[in-house]
Amino acid sequence: MNILNVSVNGEAREFATGTTLDALVADLTAAPSGVAAAVNEAVVPRSQWSGTLLDDGDRVEVLTAVQGG
């Protein structure tokens, strides 16, 4: 099995080759909504997460909306 080195929110992480963006997000948060993700500074619509394969060296940012005052 090949390993991908991916930066997630600025932290180096390893994932199996074939990992999709939706699997990565599910690994980080169980939030059903209020989550946005970008790969290499490009926002990826949630409808495309399952079809977005990660590549070695990708930079992923996952943001979760927080409500408060």
From TrEMBL:
<dbReference type="InterPro" id="IPR010035">
    <property type="entry name" value="Thi_S"/>
</dbReference>
<dbReference type="Pfam" id="PF02597">
    <property type="entry name" value="ThiS"/>
</dbReference>
<dbReference type="InterPro" id="IPR012675">
    <property type="entry name" value="Beta-grasp_dom_sf"/>
</dbReference>
<protein>
    <submittedName>
        <fullName>Sulfur carrier protein ThiS</fullName>
    </submittedName>
</protein>
<dbReference type="InterPro" id="IPR016155">
    <property type="entry name" value="Mopterin_synth/thiamin_S_b"/>
</dbReference>
<dbReference type="InterPro" id="IPR003749">
    <property type="entry name" value="ThiS/MoaD-like"/>
</dbReference>
